Amino acid sequence: MPITVIVADDQDMVRDGIATLLDAAEDISVVAQAADGGEAVALTREHHPDVVVMDVRMPTMSGLAATREIVGETGEHGPRVLMLTTFDLDEYVYEALGAGASGFLLKDATVDDLRSAVRVVAEGEALLAPSITRRLIADIAARRREKIHARPEAVGELTPREADVLRQVARGLSNGEIAEELFLAEQTVKTHVGRILTKLSLRDRTQAVVFAYENGLV
């Protein structure tokens, strides 16, 4: 079954271009396009896609507001939202982390990067554009503590090994890379990541990265 996608962007040419590039991949199918956040929410309710590729800035309803509504309605088993932004430090992106977005990609990304991002997010993983990962998370930790609350007592719920795994997740490493770094089986790392998310009540790896920075693990 192909990965079903909705593309939301207020610029017709950009939206059509993204949809065309994604639809050309054999394992991705664009089922609908939206011109603003409100339309994206309505189409998501209708089509139940695997991934919504969402522009951050749109009229009527922003991508941020639409993400919050989609994630709020569907929870962890609903569509994953991949945010697209023109700027590598967009204020809305900070807010989108708390809204439940699973990935962030710059609009100047390559076609391969775009398709890969959709696949990663569809699998339940989180993705941040390499050029913004450290700057974005560090800036959140320094400037937005009131938005994504630090919970130092929650760190104590993790075993030493889980804390080690979380530190590597915060560095942006994949499960395979963490396995090599900590001399573990990849399946063991995946199990640890699942337990970390459950213990800390986090939606995905993106929020786990934020938690690690907020609580001084990185």
Automatic annotation (TrEMBL):
The HTH luxR-type domain, residue ranges: 151-216
SMART domains assigned to the protein according to its UniProt record, in alphabetical order: HTH_LUXR (SM00421), REC (SM00448)
Keywords of the record: DNA-binding, Phosphoprotein, Transcription, Transcription regulation
Modified residues (4-aspartylphosphate): 55
Pfam families, sorted: GerE, Response_reg
Molecular function terms, GO-annotated: DNA binding
Superkingdom of source: Bacteria
Classification via InterPro entries: CheY-like_superfamily (IPR011006), NreC/VraR/RcsB-like_REC (IPR058245), Sig_transdc_resp-reg_C-effctor (IPR016032), Sig_transdc_resp-reg_receiver (IPR001789), Tscrpt_reg_LuxR_C (IPR000792), WalR-like (IPR039420)
Span of domain Response regulatory: 4-122
PROSITE patterns, per database record: HTH_LUXR_1, HTH_LUXR_2, RESPONSE_REGULATORY
Gene Ontology biological process terms from the UniProt entry: phosphorelay signal transduction system; regulation of DNA-templated transcription
Protein name per its UniProtKB record: Transcriptional regulatory protein DegU
Native organism: Streptomonospora litoralis
Organism lineage: Bacteria, Bacillati, Actinomycetota, Actinomycetes, Streptosporangiales
